[in-house]
């Protein structure tokens, strides 16, 4: 199949492709060209209620399938993704902008999550617990939570669904999914893939449209037993509040403000390589992208110089073009926000040592930027940049670096480079984050638990822990 075969301009509800009840549609644009590439339905509450009802009906039988049956279906889904990796990657780049190599990587990661959960499906073990009573036996069994609602962002339009749909399908949950409005096609493509893999109608339902109406119904509807969200902290807080009324299970993967610390004793070239990968992936638009670089005084100048030189080698352009590593930002708002971080830093004494402005290509393209002499008063010290800007702060001591790194309400990913083993342990334990990269700048994998602490969220995705998020524990007391 080609990418256009996956570009579905309809929603997937109860196994059928449907438009919005009102007939209304939303334009989808290619961020590299500004061209409208198609439309998707502008669905609201009524369609969401129908999708939830379809998921509820499907749950009756799907929840009773065996783990082996579910594992087989997931392996078919994995094959469907890998058979179409290139087409799905092209579609992803066309609607999202990232370089094709990154899109290939993302689609590969989606498949990897699906395969991981195919394997984990058969390992949802319970316990037999030693009983305090001679005439009773005690068991703990795990059962699917029920209908799951998922809301996903535009920066990973394929793999964020994989992390949610994968464990749902592995445990016997059915789901209703809303992909981000900017990048709906990679989300709707999961409907095509589910059909190819042979899932029964209603097991996976995918809706596009009004975020507040769809999200409002997902959180208010008592049939939905779990809400899983990846996106910004402010929206996560709204969903948490809304979900409270029906006491749903929640998984929240929210914003980050990742520090990246380089100690004097680090291998500088490796640190620069890690910094580049961590900062500029998806043009800086990931929640685990390094947001604040802290370089120790002894290597500060050398690190800034090397990072600036390396940033200048990155190739900006359309993601479909050979050799391009930096696609456009998602929209005009993102470009304006990136510019405002730079203007704020310059006004407060920052120094641009690489990039610093919109790219000559125009549109939503931006130069990879490095800012030296960053200070805690600058806005990016507290806020997530979500663009290709690398501010470098100076520090003197280990304690100071840890204090700066922890001085944020976020706690998703953090990174540091050192060759001192004792320091590696000390600093790892002191950093209040869900994920730590030590001498590693890109650390996400399906086998490891992804997630944050503090206002970066609750719950973990991927790994064996990611399965438990979709399972309830039932205690059984059996009298003999
Ligand atoms: P981002 O900064 O990644 O765009 P958002 O949190 O704004 O993050 O969006 C992430 C997802 O949440 C998207 O699918 C978006 O449509 C959805 N969303 C935005 N507002 C709401 C809302 N009020 N209720 C439910 N979902 C929402």
Automatic annotation (TrEMBL):
GO terms for cellular component: cytosol. Keywords: Oxidation, Oxidoreductase, Potassium. It comes from the Bacteria. Residues 17-476 form the Aldehyde dehydrogenase domain. InterPro entries: Ald_DH/histidinol_DH, Ald_DH_C, Ald_DH_CS_CYS, Ald_DH_CS_GLU, Ald_DH_N, Aldehyde_DH_dom, Aldehyde_DH_Superfamily, Succ_semiAld_DH. The keyword DNA repair does not apply. GO terms for biological process: gamma-aminobutyric acid catabolic process. One of its GO terms (molecular function) is succinate-semialdehyde dehydrogenase (NAD+) activity. Its EC number is 1.2.1.16, 1.2.1.20, 1.2.1.79. SUPFAM superfamilies: ALDH-like. The active site is at residue 253. Belongs to the aldehyde dehydrogenase family. PANTHER family: SUCCINATE-SEMIALDEHYDE DEHYDROGENASE, MITOCHONDRIAL. This is Succinate-semialdehyde dehydrogenase/glutarate-semialdehyde dehydrogenase.
């Amino acid at each position: 199949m080609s990418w256009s075969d996956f570009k579905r301009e309809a929603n997937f509800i109860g196994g059928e492709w449907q438009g919005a009840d009102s007939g209304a549609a939303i334009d989808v644009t290619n961020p590299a060209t500004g061209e409208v590439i198609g439309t998707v339905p502008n669905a609201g509450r009524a369609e969401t209620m129908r999708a939830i009802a379809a998921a509820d009906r499907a749950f009756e039988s799907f929840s009773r399938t065996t783990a082996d049956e579910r594992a087989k279906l997931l392996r078919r889904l994995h094959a469907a993704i890998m058979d179409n990796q290139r087409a799905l990657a092209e579609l992803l780049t066309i609607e999202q902008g990232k370089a094709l190599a990154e899109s290939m990587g993302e689609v590969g990661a989606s498949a990897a999550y699906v395969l991981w959960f195919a394997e984990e499906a058969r390992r949802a073990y319970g316990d037999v617990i030693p009983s305090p009573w001679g005439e009773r036996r005690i068991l703990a069994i795990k059962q699917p939570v029920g209908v799951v609602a998922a809301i996903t962002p535009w920066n990973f339009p394929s793999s964020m669904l994989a992390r949610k749909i994968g464990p749902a399908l592995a445990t016997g949950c059915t789901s209703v999914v809303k992909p981000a409005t900017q990048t709906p096609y990679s989300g709707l493509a999961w409907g095509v893939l589910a059909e190819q893999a042979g899932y029964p109608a209603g097991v996976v339902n995918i809706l596009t449209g009004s975020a507040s109406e769809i999200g409002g119904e997902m959180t208010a509807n008592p049939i939905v037993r779990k809400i899983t969200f990846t996106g910004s902290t402010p929206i996560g807080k709204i969903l948490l509040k809304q979900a409270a009324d029906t006491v749903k299970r929640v998984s929240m993967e929210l914003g980050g403000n990742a520090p990246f610390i380089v100690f004097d004793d680090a291998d500088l070239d490796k640190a620069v390589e890690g910094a580049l990968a961590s900062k500029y992936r998806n043009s800086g638009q990931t929640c685990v992208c390094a947001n604040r670089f802290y370089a120790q005084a002894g290597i500060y100048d050398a690190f800034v110089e090397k990072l600036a030189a390396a940033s200048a080698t990155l190739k900006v352009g359309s993601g479909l073009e050979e050799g391009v590593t930096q696609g456009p930002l998602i929209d005009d708002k993102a470009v304006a926000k990136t510019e405002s971080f730079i203007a704020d830093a310059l006004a407060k004494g920052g120094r641009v040592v690489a990039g610093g402005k919109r790219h000559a290509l125009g549109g939503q393209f931006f130069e990879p930027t490095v800012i030296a002499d960053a200070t805690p008063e600058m806005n990016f010290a507290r806020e997530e940049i979500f663009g290709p800007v690398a501010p470098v702060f100076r520090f003197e001591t280990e304690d100071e670096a840890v204090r700066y790194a922890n001085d944020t309400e976020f706690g998703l990913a953090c990174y540091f480079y050192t060759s001192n083993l004792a320091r590696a342990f000390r600093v790892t334990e002191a950093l209040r984050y869900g994920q730590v990269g030590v001498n590693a700048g890109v650390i996400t994998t399906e086998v490891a638990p992804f997630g944050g602490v503090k206002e970066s969220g609750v719950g973990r995705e991927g790994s064996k822990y990611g399965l438990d998020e979709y399972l309830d524990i039932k205690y059984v007391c059996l009298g003999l």
